[in-house]
Amino acid sequence: MSVEAESGSGGLNEYITHHLHHGQIDTGLVDGKLGMFNWDSWAVSLALGLVFLFWFWSVARRATTGVPGKMQAFIEMVVEFIDTQVKDSFHGDRRSVAPLALTIFMWIVFMNTMDLLPLDLPGWLVSVVAGEDAAHHFYMRVVPTADLNTTLGLSVTVFFILIGHALAAKGGFGFGKELLTAPFHAHGGMAVVLAPVNLIMNVIEWLVKPISLAMRLFGNMYGGELVFMLIAGLLGSAVTFAPGVLFNAAWGIFHILIILLQAFIFMVLTVVYIAGAREGH
């Protein structure tokens, strides 16, 4: 959500450009933009992850076997919901998969929810502390999942977890054999001929999983953030201010569904991919 934006197309373009710019640090490792590190995405995602861990740990530490309090009841409801979803998709030992699914869901919900904060809030806080000039040159995007680096980091981590599950279930030889012999099974010389085709198809199938996970989450959150910025252009004029407030509120309410749905989809697909990695073709 946004506090306000300057009127006029030029002012709106400048406003959007400013808010789409990440807070960055030049690592010096690679020339040009490839060496830039988005510290805002890293800092916000790390802070939200720690908040999630501390929240669940503190409630679990005070959990009682009697009538639970409201917070304990809420967390038990979330845990039971996630465990049910895992049970429906994964039929093996859930002791490591269910906590992973819970962590993915809650962490992404936390990161997505940052999209409901006013866009101008970080700049306003900086202006209060250091003045307007400092705020004008301060860049920070508070939605980590609107950064492709964050979603790719999550999906690549899931990718290596999938590889680990496949190796644990089938062994190195079994996993390698599956890459060369499925989905087209053959015997004798045909098996050798089809092995490169099978390998190419399996590599594509494996690589599509993290890419689709990352792009789906990033695309939805980036698009939602951009819509908030466009609606902010209506708040800079007295004529369009009232419609802008209504559109902002309506999109914010609808965006809550997107926030939860995208976290749920990422979590469910991760569990489904793990189940598939442990099963044979």
Write a short abstract of this structure.
The protein is an all-alpha fold and 281 residues long.
Number of strands: 2
Structural class: mainly alpha
The residue fraction in helices comes out at: over 70%
Rg (C-alpha, Å): 23 Å
Low-confidence stretches: 2-7
Q: Termini separation (Å)?
A: 46 Å
Major sheet details: 2 strands, antiparallel
Quaternary structure: single chain
Would you write up a description of this structure?
With 281 residues, the chain is mostly helical. Helix 3 crosses helix 4 and helix 8 (189-232) packs antiparallel against helix 9 (241-278). Residues 2-7 have low confidence and may be disordered. It starts with 8 loop residues before the first helix and ends with a helix. Helix content is 72%, strand content 2%. The chain has helices at 9-19, 39-61, 70-89, 97-113, 121-130, 132-136, 148-181, 189-232, 241-278, and strands at residues 24-26, 36-38. It contains 9 helices and 2 strands, in the order H-E-E-H-H-H-H-H-H-H-H.
